[in-house]
Amino acid sequence: MTLKPILLVEDNPDDEELTLRALRKNNIQNEVVIARDGPQALEHLFGADGAVGVGPAVVLLDLKLPKLDGIEVLRRIRADHRTRLTPVVILTSSREEQDLIAGYELGANSYIRKPVDFVQFSEAVRHLGLYWLIINEPPPV
Amino acid sequence: MPDQSAPFDGAGTAPGGISLERALFDGGLMAAAFDADGRMLMQTPALADRLGGALAAQPAALAMDSSCLRRATPRLDEERNPAGVFLVQRLPSLRGGTALVYRVYLEVTSRSRAEDDVLVSRELFRSILDIADDAVVSIDERQHIILFNQGAERIFGYRATEVLGQPLDMLLPRLAQARHQDHVAGFRASPVHARPMGERGGIFGRRKDGSVFPAEASISRVMVCGTVTFTAILRDVTRAREAEEAIRALNADLEHRALQLENANRELEAFSYSVSHDLRQPLRSIDGFSQVLIEDHASQLDQTARDALGRIRAASQRMSQLIDDILDLSRLTRGDLHRGPVDLSDMARAVVADLARGQPGRAAVTTVDIEPGLRDEADPHLVRVVLANLLGNAWKYTGRKDRAHIAFAAEEGEDGRRIYVVRDDGAGFDMAYADKLFGAFQRLHGVAEFPGNGVGLATVQRIIHKHGGEVWAVGQPDCGATVRFTLH
Is there a contact between B455 and B440 (Cβ–Cβ < 8 Å)? Predict the structure, then answer.
């Protein structure tokens, strides 16, 4: 059985590197597709020509992104029938109330604030992988 | 008052033993009392004023027949004579015997009554005119001034004698003269008898010194003996206009400031948002890649290098905590206050229970006294933050003692306001630094001595100020600290 990829939407190369490291260290084998801004994320999900690729197992979505921000990306994911059930985990720096509210209102499945402490961050990624890739039953395609 | 004009024919003593003086002088009537020999005993001041010594000097009058009295008393003036005398009371005289009390009426001819009425109404009219603050100016049909009251003298600066008979134009700004004449002509033709002036824009008057002032006025039209007169009642509204202008300016200023404040708040919000998102990311890199070095290159690092990396990580985590604290502090000032009923005693008990749970190995044997039933109207969430900080401090700074005592109570201030008190007998502080106590990131103890980041009391102060209350503290090193606050 081929593992569905993880879509990591992250514009900061350090955070990208640290997230990949945390995934690796926790033996998460899924392919990680990286989108560095909002439009790239949408392109990965819906294809440049509108064709649908393989839906990701989970989208790890940063909020502060160039061009289209994470909240807007989430809105479009939920607005499209092909992706409206796709698990989306907001993985971001802020715990500003407005972000939390907007995230959950638009149907984010989870909201995780990246800890500064890498050990804690790695632990959070481990839980995240365990939950969304193993424990959780994904929606039917 | 009994009808005193009815002759009294009773037994001779006044009911209830009323004294003669009292019976006579009650009510300011014209009355006199005589003894049985016809000598006048006394007369009321009103009668004395009117008739002078006439009665006393004319014992012959004392038959007290009214026609006799009329003959006996001199004519006061052309129209006024005593018109009647009635026996109204028999009273025991102070000198023994009986006193007869007579009431005296004056006859007033109908001609003099009518003139009196005119006199009275003229007097009334004049005094009303003169006490009025407003200018009352009447003009005749040719628009010449025929009445100019004291108010008008004050407002226009002319004496009445200077303007009576003069054209009204002298009271108007030159530019307004023609328009005003049209106005009066238009009003003359209109069916209404009175209306406010200057409905479309202000009207103005001109003073003797030439200065022009804004006015409010109403005009009325009265027909007197077949000729039309116009009367304007006019008020100088210079000050009212100035006040309005000042209010307008203040309002504009206020709006401007409100806008500035709103902008500042928006900027602060944007700033916080950006801090929240952007300031933590570099810390994650610092911490994360330090950890990469520790994990992946352990063999190349000696103890000193590992120690340095440990410090780098600790510092970045601490900075991340500081950022969170700053954001929390700024969030407190931005949010709205939602007052509701709060039981501070319950809340304090819960806070202390949390503290005890959070530190099971605490060495100090701690007694906590909480005054029961302290209820108030405040923001429950924020008051909880206040109590958590104050009791948390008390808890922290008594931690090094063997036995500690913490109290939460209320007392009444001089102005009747309730003052809450959090008291401990812990490390205390030097009053010389009391002014630093409530500043953000100000600490009076080293982190090694007592941990903390210095935002606790700053947070408390912000919350208390947001409630419109005050917070202050007294302390002494090693003897404890007492923090007092109000919530209104």
Answer: yes
Residues from chain B that touch A117, judged by Cβ atoms under 8 A, are 287, 313, 317, 320
Sort out which chain A residues have CB atoms less than 8 A from B336's CB and list them: none
Residue A140 lies in a domain: no
| pLDDT per residue as tens digits for the range B163-182 | 999 998 899 888 777 777 77
Residue A141 lies inside a defined structural domain of this protein: no
What is the tens place of the pLDDT at every residue in B272-327? 888 878 888 899 999 999 999 999 998 999 999 999 999 999 999 888 888 888 88
Task: Of A19, A32, A29, A4, give the one whose Cα is nearest residue A138.
Answer: A4
Closest Cα partner for A129 from A118, A121, A140?
Answer: A121
The residue type of B9 is D
Give me the total of CB pairs closer than 8 Å, taking one residue from chain A and one from chain B.
60
**Which residue is listed with tokens 């926790």?**
A26
- What is the ipTM score, two decimals? 0.84
DSSP 8-state assignment for residue A139: P
- Residue A51 in domain: yes
Angle between helices B303-334 and B280-296 (to 10 degrees): 160
In a domain, A46, yes or no: yes
Residues of B in contact with A18 (CB under 8 A): 284-285, 288-289
User: Are A14 and B285 in contact (CB < 8 Å)?
Assistant: yes
Number of domains in chain A: 1
The pair of structure tokens assigned to B323 is: 């950022």
